[in-house]
């Protein structure tokens, strides 16, 4: 027997050393036994108590009535029997726990405490959302599609997400995530996104996203109830028609988004996609706060972007910037591409 041969049977290294010595030198006194193994009296006493409790060491029936180590064959059988008994007890507890869990689930079905409407559930609050996501992550098999608005990700969210994402990717789940363009300005968020891509995930960015959304295996989707306060609640969708629509929305957005490693440059209008989106929001009359929320940037950054766009257009007001943008063809059309209108003079 090499190494800690009895380790799997319940003996630690000190216990095995003592047991081996007692088999090799029967009848050795405790003082000599401790000295030969380099153990203190206390260490030896603890080991002997454990060995006696396991039944592999017992008092000798013959003088001088020192401790006796049973044969390795008998010792192994005793240790195996103890483990088999412990395993049987653990299996019984597991069966009882499964039965108790089944009773609990039957009393509080999915969505209990929230709203359940046919094939749709409404989850109230961030705790219910996180509980549902934990179950969803364990059940997804092939694909996870995600809209992640909000710009830069918090450190706490990234630390919590990394082990979950790694397990999904190791299971072969294809993960595609669309972040906001503003994520590229935050080093920690970019590092997290790059970590995802190194481990097999796919990441793209776009100037604006409609809402927070997760679609798994085209069978279930989670959509925030309020796009401004995404932690307030979420709708769980299982209706086929709605799932098809959400998947189509994701794929359309994915095609218009830029891979993480590809820099976003200005197009023929001279505006970056984020500037063009900011201009569209300004033309709709959105405030700096609203623009900042949609782009996932600070209000200060939103004001700076607005000033840059107005300066490029030569506009003295936001209203004039909207008029000029419409006439010069800068405003994005329904497909997100600036409309090409003939130049006009104001």
Explain what this protein looks like in three dimensions.
- The protein is an alpha+beta fold.
- The protein has three domains: 107 residues, Orthogonal Bundle (Arc Repressor Mutant, subunit A), CATH 1.10.10; 145 residues, Endonuclease Chain A (Endonuclease, Chain A), CATH 3.30.870.10; 56 residues, Orthogonal Bundle (Arc Repressor Mutant, subunit A), CATH 1.10.10.
- The chain has twelve helices and eleven strands.
- It has a nine-stranded mixed beta sheet, sandwiched between helices.
- Helix 1 packs across helix 3.
- The longest helix has 36 residues.
What are the SSEs and their pairings?
Blueprint: H1 13-24, H2 30-37, H3 41-54, E1 57-59, E2 67-69, H4 72-107, E3 115-117, E4 120-124, H5 125-139, E5 143-148, H6 155-170, E6 174-180, H7 187-198, E7 202-206, E8 213-216, E9 220-224, E10 233-237, H8 240-256, E11 258-259, H9 273-283, H10 288-295, H11 299-313, H12 318-328
Parallel strand pairs: 5-6, 6-7
Antiparallel strand pairs: 1-2, 3-4, 4-10, 5-8, 7-11, 8-9, 9-10
Helix pairs in contact: 1-3, 6-7, 9-10, 9-11, 9-12, 10-11, 11-12
Keywords: Coiled coil
InterPro entries: Sig_transdc_resp-reg_C-effctor, TrmB-like, Tscrpt_reg_LuxR_C, WH-like_DNA-bd_sf
Pfam family, one: GerE
Provide tags for this entry.
single chain, Arc Repressor Mutant, subunit A, nine-stranded mixed beta sheet, alpha+beta, disordered C terminus, two-stranded antiparallel ribbon, 51% helix, Endonuclease, Chain A
Sheet with the most strands, sense and barrel status: 9 strands, mixed
CATH class of the largest domain: Alpha Beta
CATH topology-level fold name of the largest domain: Endonuclease, Chain A
Low-confidence stretches: 333-346
Q: Count of helical segments?
A: 12
Number of domains: 3
Number of strands: 11
The amount of helix comes to 40-55%
**Computed CA radius of gyration, to the nearest angstrom:** 33 Å
Shape: elongated
Q: From the 3D coordinates, which CATH architecture of the largest domain would you assign?
A: 2-Layer Sandwich
Strand order within the widest beta sheet: 3-4-10-9-8-5-6-7-11
What order do the SSEs take from the amino end to the carboxyl end, as H and E? HHHEEHEEHEHEHEEEEHEHHHH
Structural class: alpha+beta
The average pLDDT value, as a whole number, equals: 78
CATH superfamily assignment of the largest domain? Endonuclease Chain A
Strand content: 5-15%
N- and C-termini, Cα separation: 94 Å
Organism: Streptomyces peucetius
Protein name: Helix-turn-helix transcriptional regulator
Coiled coil: 80-107
InterPro entries: Sig_transdc_resp-reg_C-effctor (IPR016032), TrmB-like (IPR051797), Tscrpt_reg_LuxR_C (IPR000792), WH-like_DNA-bd_sf (IPR036388)
């Amino acid at each position: 027997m090499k190494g800690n041969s009895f380790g799997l049977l319940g003996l630690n290294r000190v216990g095995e050393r003592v047991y081996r010595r007692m088999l090799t030198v029967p009848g050795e006194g405790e003082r000599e036994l401790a000295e030969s193994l380099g153990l203190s009296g206390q260490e030896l006493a603890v080991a002997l108590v454990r060995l006696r409790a396991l039944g592999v060491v017992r008092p000798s029936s013959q003088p001088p009535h020192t401790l006796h180590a049973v044969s390795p064959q008998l010792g192994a059988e005793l240790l195996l029997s103890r483990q088999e008994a412990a395993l049987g007890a653990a299996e019984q507890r597991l069966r009882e726990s499964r039965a108790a869990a089944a009773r609990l689930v039957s009393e509080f079905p999915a969505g209990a405490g929230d709203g359940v409407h046919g094939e749709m559930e409404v989850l109230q609050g961030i705790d219910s959302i996180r509980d549902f996501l934990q179950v969803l992550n364990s059940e997804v098999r092939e694909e996870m599609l995600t809209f992640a608005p909000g710009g830069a990700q918090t450190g706490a969210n990234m630390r919590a997400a990394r082990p979950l994402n790694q397990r999904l990717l190791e299971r072969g789940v294809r993960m595609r995530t669309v972040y906001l363009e503003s994520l590229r300005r935050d080093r920690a968020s970019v590092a997290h996104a790059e970590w995802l891509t190194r481990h097999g995930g796919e990441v793209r960015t776009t100037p604006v996203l409609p809402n927070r959304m997760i679609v798994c295996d085209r069978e279930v989707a989670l959509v925030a109830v309020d796009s401004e306060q995404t932690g307030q609640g979420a709708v769980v969708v299982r209706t086929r028609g709605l799932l098809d629509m959400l998947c189509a929305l994701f794929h359309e957005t994915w095609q218009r988004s830029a891979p993480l490693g590809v820099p976003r440059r200005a197009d023929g209008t001279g505006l970056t996609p984020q500037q063009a989106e900011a201009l569209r929001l300004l033309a709709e009359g959105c405030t700096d706060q609203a623009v900042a929320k949609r782009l996932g940037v600070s209000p200060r950054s939103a004001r700076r972007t607005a000033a840059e766009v107005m300066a490029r257009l030569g506009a003295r007001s936001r209203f004039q910037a909207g008029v000029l943008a419409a006439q010069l063809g800068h405003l994005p059309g329904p497909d997100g591409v600036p409309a090409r209108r003939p130049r006009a003079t104001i």
